[in-house]
UniProtKB/TrEMBL annotation:
Pfam family, one: Ig_CycH
TPR repeat segments: 160-193
Domain Cytochrome c-type biogenesis protein H TPR: 112-268
Database matches in Gene3D superfamilies: Tetratricopeptide repeat domain (1.25.40.10)
Protein name: Cytochrome c-type biogenesis protein CcmH/NrfG
InterPro entries per the UniProt record, alphabetical: C-type_cytochrome_biogenesis (IPR051263), Ig_CycH (IPR056412), TPR-like_helical_dom_sf (IPR011990), TPR_CcmH_CycH (IPR056413), TPR_rpt (IPR019734)
PANTHER family in alphabetical order: CYTOCHROME C-TYPE BIOGENESIS PROTEIN CCMH (PTHR47870:SF1)
Keywords: Cytochrome c-type biogenesis, Repeat, TPR repeat
Domain Cytochrome c-type biogenesis protein H Ig-like: 294-378
Amino acid sequence: MLMSLSFAGALMLVLIVLLLLFFRRKGAGVQLSPVVQFEEKLQLLSQARDNGELAEQDFTLAATELKTQYLQQQQNQQRVSGSPTTWVLGTSVLVLLGTVWLYSLTGHFTALQNWQTAQQLLPEYGERALLNKGEPLTEEEINLFALALRTKISKEGDDAVAWFVIGRIWLSKGMLDDAIEAFEKALALTPNRINVLISYSQALLVAAGDEHLAKAARSLSKVLQQDPDNTDALSMLAMVAEERGDKEQAQQAWHLLLPKLETNDPRYALVQQKLGLMPAAEQNTTAQVSGRQVSVELSISPELAQQYKAGTLFVFAKAVDGPPLPLAVQKLAVFSGTQTITLSEAQAMQQGWTLANADRIQISALLSLSGQVLDDENGPQVQSDILSFDEAALRLSLSLQP
């Protein structure tokens, strides 16, 4: 860090010296020109006087005028030659001070220090993030972990594991395009890795859109070809089918998934509900869902329901202290009036990031025309106060009004 600043200072000093030499040489060249002109003109006047072409009185007046012009030129030249030196020195000092100020202000000192820290702590970050050893990474440490991994790739070449971890980091921060790109780079190196295919499908499912959903379906099919009992793949395949409007394929996937789940799995009650195996009166009760859950009594005004009738309603929970990726999401058709919506550990957007992972949360309800909860936060929305899981089941009321 100090070497970089010293190098910049040395370059600035060299520049100052070169500018000073340039202006001095230029000034010296300009000072010689009036002298030569004065001598030549005075010699011509003398020759004219000696040849009788100019009277003595006229010669005296002309010589006096010539001397006056020469002295004025000398005074002007001194002001001009002194000005560049002063300007160069003043400007150079300002540039040097400005360079140091901008270098500090833009965070280069901090960025360099962070980069060095990230390199030193890369093994520790890997153990804490991937092996759950020690305390979970903070938001700042997650950013440093990603920086260290990118540096590792730039030094050692593409690495499937590094790209996979970077993709997980970007996904947890809601940076869907970056996450998808990272997973694709990992898959280019290891096309059949199940954990990469699962994470890639998660990112595509969250991003939504026909093209993304088609890619997700293909990735999940690859997983099921290798592991037909993979519950994550079956669950996401059912959700992809629902997103694409293929109810028949969704029902088939739910049917395949249900017997593979333990009854205490947070997804068990959700799948029962999807298959219509749960009595209607029990579908919105928290007793039927295991783990942490939040029941939201949501009211939507008729005006907003009409305005967003072609849109999508998202009800989601986010951690107060943690990545911005929602802990749980319900994606529903827009309705008018009041309904109760349950968020549970079964509605996680990313494996390992559920309501069980955060003690303080906020609940939001958002109306979206884009169909993407992460990309349309300008739509009408309402947010709850900060909630704490003092008990496993929470209840609250929210209202969406114009």
